[in-house]
């Protein structure tokens, strides 16, 4: 199979030939038709995370091996499957969304359907094994294939990461009244998806925060009821003003030092901050304020297979407004990554086989 792979961190992707996998056991081989380009791909490509005063966390220390075909938002056509998938309703040519957040498959968390939280061995597609920036991809289990009947496959691909990530984060904020403001920090692909999902869940007040006015305009078009242009040291004050007071729920899809501090300072008593982004840095807060204001800070990492199925079901019922999606060819993956790094993409760009 052909792949557009990271061969050396920080260097241009290279088109290479890799052995086409032969499915074993419960595995299913698919021909890739659509693959989303996600901001987390930039961290994998660059090879590290910013840990603030603790330095850098290198992807190789987390088990990443090169060369690697990235891409974890994958839609493809079923080609063949292992003997364990026989009798599970698979047919050649079926179009399926692939759940990429694969764990060891044997621990208690994996058996509960929480493979994204596996602490034994993460095997995420496009991170620890080859993903969608290739002509073929191997799904590790037939259960990870989700029908997307009635959906644009380019849009459906986004649900495997940006969609399920924000859906899982939103669930961690609940319960909240539909008229209580929820703040979404970052109005890129994840931010627009969060606004869409919140709207689909019937939420009435959504405040988007970003450093780019153009992205805030896109957030308004997506359904945000308030927007805040983040600049200087008074972002928290602007959030509070826009929302009519300190807020109870914030999802930080950037999660850098400045965004996290602004989010913390904007929280009201009993408020929750859900940290999702991987921008990096560190957060220093006055510890007495945590109990005095009864603040909750919680990380959220992608989502589970059950959550992805729920989200796709909502989309198939027409409950989730589509986000802006553009397409490019698979062989343009490197150029798309660079445009994403430069902040030139609104919504999501999906690589296609044609």
Automatic annotation (TrEMBL):
<dbReference type="Pfam" id="PF00107">
    <property type="entry name" value="ADH_zinc_N"/>
</dbReference>
<dbReference type="GO" id="GO:0004022">
    <property type="term" value="F:alcohol dehydrogenase (NAD+) activity"/>
</dbReference>
<dbReference type="GO" id="GO:0008270">
    <property type="term" value="F:zinc ion binding"/>
</dbReference>
<dbReference type="GO" id="GO:0005737">
    <property type="term" value="C:cytoplasm"/>
</dbReference>
<dbReference type="InterPro" id="IPR002328">
    <property type="entry name" value="ADH_Zn_CS"/>
</dbReference>
<dbReference type="InterPro" id="IPR013149">
    <property type="entry name" value="ADH-like_C"/>
</dbReference>
<dbReference type="Pfam" id="PF08240">
    <property type="entry name" value="ADH_N"/>
</dbReference>
<dbReference type="InterPro" id="IPR036291">
    <property type="entry name" value="NAD(P)-bd_dom_sf"/>
</dbReference>
<dbReference type="InterPro" id="IPR011032">
    <property type="entry name" value="GroES-like_sf"/>
</dbReference>
<dbReference type="InterPro" id="IPR013154">
    <property type="entry name" value="ADH-like_N"/>
</dbReference>
<keyword id="KW-0862">Zinc</keyword>
<feature type="domain" description="Enoyl reductase (ER)">
    <location>
        <begin position="5"/>
        <end position="351"/>
    </location>
</feature>
<keyword id="KW-0560">Oxidoreductase</keyword>
<comment type="similarity">
    <text>Belongs to the zinc-containing alcohol dehydrogenase family.</text>
</comment>
<protein>
    <recommendedName>
        <fullName>alcohol dehydrogenase</fullName>
        <ecNumber>1.1.1.1</ecNumber>
    </recommendedName>
</protein>
<dbReference type="InterPro" id="IPR020843">
    <property type="entry name" value="ER"/>
</dbReference>
<keyword id="KW-0479">Metal-binding</keyword>
């Amino acid at each position: 199979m052909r792949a557009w792979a990271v061969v050396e961190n920080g260097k241009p992707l290279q088109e290479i030939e890799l052995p086409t996998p032969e499915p074993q056991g419960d595995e299913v081989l698919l021909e890739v038709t659509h693959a989303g380009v996600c901001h987390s791909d930039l961290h994998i490509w660059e090879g590290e995370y910013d840990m603030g005063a603790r330095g850098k966390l290198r992807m190789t220390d987390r088990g990443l091996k090169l060369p690697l075909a990235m891409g974890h938002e994958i839609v493809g056509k079923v080609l063949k499957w292992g003997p364990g998938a026989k009798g599970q309703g698979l047919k050649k040519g079926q179009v399926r969304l692939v759940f990429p957040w694969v764990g060891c498959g044997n621990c208690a968390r994996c058996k509960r359907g929480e493979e994204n939280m596996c602490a034994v061995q993460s095997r995420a597609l496009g991170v620890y094994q080859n993903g969608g920036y290739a002509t073929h991809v191997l799904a590790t289990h037939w259960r990870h294939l989700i029908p997307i009947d009635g959906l644009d496959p380019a849009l459906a691909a986004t649900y495997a990461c940006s969609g399920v990530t924000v859906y899982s984060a939103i669930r961690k904020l609940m319960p909240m009244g539909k008229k209580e403001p929820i703040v979404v920090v970052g109005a890129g692909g994840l931010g627009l998806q969060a606004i869409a999902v919140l709207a689909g869940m019937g939420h009435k007040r959504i405040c988007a925060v970003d450093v780019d006015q153009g992205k805030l305009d896109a957030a308004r078009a997506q359904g945000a009821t308030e927007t805040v242009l983040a600049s200087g040291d008074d972002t928290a004050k602007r959030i509070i003003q826009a929302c009519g007071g300190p807020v109870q729920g914030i999802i930080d899809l950037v999660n850098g030092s400045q965004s996290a501090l602004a989010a913390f300072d904007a929280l009201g008593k009993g408020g929750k901050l859900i940290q999702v982004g991987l921008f990096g840095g560190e957060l220093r807060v006055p510890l007495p304020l945590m109990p005095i204001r009864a603040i909750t800070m919680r990380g959220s990492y992608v989502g589970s297979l059950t959550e992805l199925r729920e989200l796709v079901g909502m989309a198939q019922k027409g409950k989730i407004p589509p986000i802006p999606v553009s397409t490019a060819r698979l062989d343009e993956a490197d150029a798309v990554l660079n445009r994403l790094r430069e902040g030139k993409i609104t919504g999501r760009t999906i690589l296609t086989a044609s």
